[in-house]
Amino acid sequence: MKRYLYLLHRWLGIVLCLFMALWFFSGVVMLFVGYPKLTPQEHLLHLPPLATNDCCVGPAQAIQVAGSTPKAVRLTTVVGLPHYILEYAEGTRVAVAARTGQRVTHVNAAMALASAEQFAQVPRRYLSAIQEDAWTRSRALDSDRPLHVVQLDEPQARLLYISSQTGEVIRDANSTERVWNWVGSWLHWIYLLRDNPWWTQIVIYLSLAATLMAVLGYIIGILRWRFAKPYRSGSRSPYQTFSARWHHIAGLLFGILLIVWIFSGLMSMRPWGIFANPERLDTSAYQSISLDSHINTEPVSKVLKRFQAAGFEPVELHWQIVGKRIYRVAYDRTGESRILPQTQEAQALIQLPSITLEKAVRLVRPQDVLEVEWLDAYDFYYVSRAEQSMYGATRKRLPMLRVRFQDPSATWLHIDPYSGAVIEQLDRHQRAGRLLFNLLHSWDWAPLLERPWLREPLIILFSIGGLLISLTGIVLGWRRLAPRKRTAKRKTYENRRPEPDTQSKNGCR
Final residue of a domain: which of 127, 149, 179? Predict the structure, then answer.
């Protein structure tokens, strides 16, 4: 049985150790350089203040022009002019010019250059219109394709990707991100095979086989280590060559973490639908009215002036439904927000009152006895990530309202009091996924995230350990697959053996 364990571990290692080495190396790169994205903070930073003069037709007219009721409406600046952006449940977006009330049906190269000029006032040149390239693999961009690509003439040579549907800049990728991501995200996620319809299954089963290989290796490492009595060489490891000895020792030192990292990487692919929830909570009652009802109660220019009178300079204006009311949420270039209820005498608020949010959330399941908790500090299920991380595009502010429901999936809602929006919905399947992936793989744990000086060196140290296991495994696999070299060594050994003493065997002296 031990022999079968050795053989299976050996041949799995021959196939997989190269992948393992690439995963560990690229994982360290991704710790510091994330896949290109345009965060909400970057988006707001490049917007001019919304003009109060000659602005704008009402949002209800924009909805009427678009032809259907959206789930979200915002007023922003596109190609230097105010535009409404209407977002729909299926992920599509429609742009309506706010001054003329005309729908944007086509974004050409000239508009793309104007959008790039608004984003950064530097020389620029139009490259092409594309469906997808190395830095726009995200499915979240599908509703904006094809994408216009504009390059900025600056030291970082940023590429801007502009939506052909709305004219907004939706992604930027500077030269540092592009160079490092070839040996970061592209290696880690095996994006070379992304166009293959079997890509997901390839990554899943490679990770599953690697997990089995690591478990077998750790078992073998324990079996081969002499805890009580050393081998004749004086070592507790039976292996004499450098690569074999350090493969054994590194495997014992870092093997458990190696298993955890590979397994949690497998969980990142959500294999076989194990985190899918067929009974997802319907939260539509939280927004119990539609955006096209009572949205035009006050001219937009007057709303903007009311924010300015409160000492706040909006660059983007959102209409947000909370319960049975519509609120105007304004954002400035720093990402700060203010809320204005749709009443003439209301003052701009920093946060919505607790009672307002709690009443609205009770509409989701009126029969439940809700557990309501205000978070004033990050915890395991609510953390803020650095911009370069996979989740760096989501801004998570404090305090935050957590509501626990008594539905079959034991759902939690996280609600942002600064806007009234539902930040995320976590059922028991998603919370399990967070444990099995985010904690075990990315170490998304508030005490560590708050101490990057500790978290990052530890991840690098353990990644070096995993890389040592992988590289020594590659050497061992190469030696196993080099029969000519082994045959040559065997012949050399045979040639060096002394000739048998035939005279002694015949009794002669």
Answer: 179
Is the pLDDT reported for residue 379 higher than 80? yes
Q: Residue 404: beta bridge partners? A: 371, 412
Say if CB 323 and CB 360 are below 8 A apart. Answer: yes
In a domain, 419, yes or no: yes
> Rg of the Cα trace of the chain?
30
**Per-residue buried b or exposed e for 197-236, using 16+ beta carbons within 10 Å of the residue's own CB:** eeeeeebbebbebbbbbbbbbbebbeebeeeeeeeeeeeb
Highest mean pLDDT among 339-343, 387-391, 393-397, 416-420: 416-420
Q: How many CB atoms lie within 10 A of CB 129?
A: 16
Structural domain harbouring 303: 284-426
**What's the total number of domains in the chain?**
2
Residue 174 CA to residue 36 CA, distance in Å, equals 8
Residue 180: its H or E element: helix 175-182
pLDDT digits 0-9 by tens, 325-354: 999 999 999 999 999 998 777 789 999 999
Contact 395, 408 (CB under 8 A): no
Note the pLDDT tens digit of each residue in 289-328.
Answer: 888 777 877 889 999 999 999 999 999 999 999 988 999 9
pTM of the model: 0.89
Give the domain-ending residue among 149, 179, 209: 179
